[in-house]
UniProtKB/TrEMBL annotation:
Belongs to the sulfur carrier protein TusA family. CDD domains: SirA_YedF_YeeD. It comes from the Archaea. InterPro entries: TusA-like (IPR001455), TusA-like_sf (IPR036868). The lineage of its organism: Archaea, Methanobacteriati, Methanobacteriota, Stenosarchaea group, Halobacteria. Pfam families: TusA (PF01206). Residues 11-35 form the UPF0033 domain. PANTHER family: SULFUR CARRIER PROTEIN YEDF-RELATED (PTHR33279). This is UPF0033 domain-containing protein. Gene3D superfamilies: TusA-like domain (3.30.110.40).
């Protein structure tokens, strides 16, 4: 992670494929308070573009960063409002 991010909750969606990572991410974000960050850990390579597109098209959500590791994709999403 290039910057220090204060993570409120981690969501493990490893082994799930589209659309489930997005469905579960939306549910977890809904439970957070504004300003809190959700870390989403996925194995679906499509989650990189899926979560980016979802965050871009969703009011009150901001994608802070995405990282690719050894077949694991980590996304940091902040609830804005």
């Amino acid at each position: 992670m290039s910057t220090e991010i204060d993570i409120a909750e981690t969501l493990d969606v490893k082994g799930l494929s589209c659309p489930m990572p997005i469905v579960k991410t939306k549910g977890a974000i809904d439970d957070l308070a504004p300003g809190e960050v959700l870390e989403v850990v996925a194995t679906d390579p499509g989650s990189v573009s899926d979560i980016d597109g979802w965050a871009t098209g969703t009011d009150g959500v901001m994608l802070l960063e995405q990282e690719e590791g050894d077949d694991v994709y980590t996304h940091y999403v902040r609830k804005e409002a």
